[in-house]
Amino acid sequence: MIEEVIKLSPVPVVFVADDKLEPNEGGCYSPGSAQVIPHWPVLHKAVFNFYSWIGVLKEITPYIKISDSLSYHEKTSTLLHEIGHALCWKKNCDCCWKNKKYREIHADEYALNWLLENNLSKSLQKKLLYIKCLSEQNNYHGEAARHTMKTELWIECIRITR
User: Fold this and answer.
1) Can you give the C-alpha Rg of the chain in angstroms?
2) How is residue 18 annotated by DSSP?
3) pLDDT for 66-114, tens place per residue?
4) Is residue 7 part of a domain?
5) φ and ψ of 108, to 5 deg
6) Which domain holds residue 86?
């Protein structure tokens, strides 16, 4: 099933060792960016407004990284969460321009809905457990998790997995 989930992604997906991710991170979505490559003879700084160095822009492709050490069901639920982020950026969704809490809420909604609709109860259980653990944090991940746990979607997911 994970192969089917990978096909949903609008960006490349790579599975990486844990040392290629932030500590305690199971996956991440990088929306890509423009990287300034300095010209070889130019070493001085430009005026720091839109460009930080004199140079040419090199586009970095968006991608999703998922920890290779996660279980199959953890990989599936994490990948769906990160695909949620990627789809929002691709569609220029409003959540991309709000704070981090709303981006996490939207990505969790995508993952939970997909797992629920496709009847992947083991992966859904892993996602619910992860959100429950996040709810104890005192940061935007915790705020997003606590918000998600008050929704009808959460109640439906809990009901299905019992």
Assistant:
1) 18
2) G
3) 999 999 999 999 999 999 999 988 887 777 777 889 999 999 999 999 9
4) no
5) -65, -40
6) 69-161
